[in-house]
Automatic annotation (TrEMBL):
It comes from Pseudozyma flocculosa. Keywords: Cytoplasm. Residues 1-30 are annotated as: Disordered. Pfam families: Rho_GDI. GO terms for biological process: Rho protein signal transduction. InterPro entries: Ig_E-set, Rho_GDI, RhoGDI_dom_sf. One of its GO terms (molecular function) is Rho GDP-dissociation inhibitor activity. GO terms for cellular component: cytosol; membrane. This is Rho GDP-dissociation inhibitor. Regulates the GDP/GTP exchange reaction of the Rho proteins by inhibiting the dissociation of GDP from them, and the subsequent binding of GTP to them. Signal peptide: none annotated. It is found in: Cytoplasm. Belongs to the Rho GDI family.
Length: 203
């Protein structure tokens, strides 16, 4: 999932930090992982946490490695508890997101949540990173660990730490352009998209 990006938010600003103590090690196929030493209890628990004890039979070998379903700004005060963007829309509609920003009420606490599906292999050390700019100036940057996930038919959900939306006339003065990315610790980019939000007096 990669679309034409906002040229004002460069790849260097989306570079992630390395996770301390993380060693990607040797890549294995899903089948190789499922056949790893069954006598190792800790390994068995790790495989079960990724769904490898049940999921492999149902995996579509042609499925994309990672498929994003939606991104939401979750807040108790938001209508329905969240404002969301369907990331499975056609490319043209996704491009229009930059011109049709989400409204975020000033001063509220909110959390970013993504819903995604993992396809035909284990994805390790996934991270979500976003850079927010207003009038060409970086006003916020967020980098959060998503974790490691195995293939399964049902989507996963990941909600990140809470943030407070800015308030005041200056905060409401323009549109915030956001470039978001899902990457792993090896630098592989699984999703890269641009969207926008505005700080408003009400949702």
């Amino acid at each position: 999932m990669s679309h034409a990006q906002d040229p004002t938010i460069g790849d260097d600003e989306l570079a992630t930090t390395k996770t301390a103590g993380y060693n990607p090690g040797e890549k294995k196929t899903l089948d190789e992982y499922t056949k790893l030493d069954a006598e190792d209890e800790s390994l068995a628990r790790w495989k079960a946490s990724l769904g490898l004890d049940t999921a492999s039979a149902a995996v579509d070998p042609n499925a994309p490695k990672l498929q994003l379903h939606s991104i939401s700004l979750v807040s108790p005060s938001a209508p329905g508890g969240a404002v969301s963007i369907d990331l499975q829309q056609p490319k043209e509609q996704l491009e229009a997101l930059k011109k049709n920003p989400l409204n975020v009420k000033e001063g509220v606490d909110y959390s970013v949540k993504i819903v995604f599906k993992v396809g035909n292999e284990i994805l390790s050390g996934l991270k979500y990173v976003q850079v927010v700019k207003r009038a060409g100036v970086t006003v916020d940057r967020m980098e959060e660990m998503i974790g490691s996930y195995g293939p399964r038919a049902e989507p996963y959900e990941k909600k990140f730490a809470s943030n407070e939306a800015p308030s005041g006339m200056l905060a409401r003065s323009g549109t915030n352009t956001v470039r978001s990315r899902v990457v792993d610790d090896d630098g592989n980019v699984f999703a890269d998209w641009t969207w926008a939000f505005k700080i408003t007096k009400e949702w």
